[in-house]
Amino acid sequence: MSKQPRKQRKERAEAALHERHSQVRATLTGDLREEYDQRSVRVNEGDTVEVMRGDFAGETGEVLDVDLTDETISVEEVTIEAADGEEVPRRLEPSNVRVTDLNLEDDLRQARLESEEDSA
Question: Exposed, middle or buried by CB within 10 Å (0-12, 13-18, 19+), for 83?
Answer without folding.
Answer: exposed
